[in-house]
Amino acid sequence: MTITIVGAGLGGLALARVLHVNGIESVVYEREASREARGQGGMLDIHSGQPALREAGLIGEFFAIARGEGQDMKLLESDGTLLLQEDTPDDAPLARPEVDRADLRDLLLDALPEGTVRWGHAYESAENGEVRFGDGSSATYDLLVGADGANSRVRALLTDARPAHLGQNVVEIGIPDIDRTHPGLAAMVGRGNYWVFGDGLSMGAQRNGDGRVRIGLSFYNTGEDWLATSGIPFDDPAAAKARLIELLSGWDSKFIALIEACDDTVVPRSLSTLPLGLTWEPAPDVTLLGDAAHLMPPVGEGANMALLDGARLALALAAHPDDFPAAVKEYEREMFERTGAAARMSARVQEMLMSPDAARKMLAFFQPD
């Protein structure tokens, strides 16, 4: 029977790989023209998702590309006060290592048989066991898996739920090759995550494996139209950085220096989530995984849940190779419970981030009594 996966993100690829390990082949259709079509984002903290990589037979390769030093963390207030610093010993276990999303995706792609991923196929619709793509082509399926992310189009086959704005808008900037170009700022940020909290906004700086420091400025309790009304001229990088500095009025000068050192890449992001605890009635031939199923606040669980979704669905299908409806029911029952708990935890962390005293609440979160 034919398993058709829409979306070559981490969850869809994990599903295809664990199926392959268990002797079941599948086809992945991806709208992007090739694996190099666009950047894949920054670093991921892979912790609860590691069992999926074990099921995929890739845990050794994962540890080889993971950055244990990425577990380092600094937490500060906007006036420069250091609240917390955690430095990871070189021999510490890789409990929460950071890995470049692109490297992890490449690891999964390279572990699939040639031809498993069909590039340049944008999903349009599906009905009666046939999926249609934007280029006019089509394919049959016995099971259709929507792994097509936050704005999933497959989702509409199972639920009317749509993502709603989270009340958070992000502007991403960055400093390339920071060790060479700005060694003082490199030492300040450190090897892992660098978090600064002010009133209603935060700055997160993160060292990437390619030497770039990715910086996200988050503006909390802001509306869906905030990026358009913020006065940030995204088409003029120099003026955009100047406006961001204005918005950080009162912040310590060392944080302003980070923005001044950034290159001309300025990317706006409006964040959304699906309803907490979303479920749907099982269908015999369609299911969802990853952000398509449970888009949650971006506090470190999404990629881990997507990897687990892919592995758990694959194992359910391997256990019921001649009964896809039974496999889907088994998978969705476990997925709803597991990801519901992760979404509730993520919502609690998001509530702390959006509070006026976010720095102190996050300190208590990382250092509970």
Automatic annotation (TrEMBL):
InterPro entries for this protein: FAD-bd, FAD/NAD-bd_sf, TetX_monooxygenase
Record-annotated membrane-spanning stretches: none
Classification via Pfam families: FAD_binding_3 (PF01494)
Binding site for FAD: 45, 101, 291
Subcellular location, record wording: Cytoplasm
Entry annotated with the keyword Nucleotide-binding: yes
Catalytic reaction(s) noted: a tetracycline + NADPH + O2 + H(+) = an 11a-hydroxytetracycline + NADP(+) + H2O
Keyword Membrane among UniProt keywords: no
Residues of the FAD-binding domain: 3-165, 286-320
Entry keywords, A to Z: Cytoplasm, FAD, Flavoprotein, Monooxygenase, NADP, Nucleotide-binding, Oxidoreductase
Cofactor(s) required for function per UniProt: FAD
EC number assigned by the record: 1.14.13.-
Residues that coordinate or bind NADPH: 38
Subunit relationships: Monomer.
Matching HAMAP family: TetX_monooxygenase
Free-text function comment from the UniProt entry: An FAD-requiring monooxygenase active on some tetracycline antibiotic derivatives, which leads to their inactivation. Hydroxylates carbon 11a of tetracycline and some analogs.
Comment field on protein domains: Consists of an N-terminal FAD-binding domain with a Rossman fold and a C-terminal substrate-binding domain.
Entry's family note: Belongs to the aromatic-ring hydroxylase family. TetX subfamily.
Protein name: Flavin-dependent monooxygenase
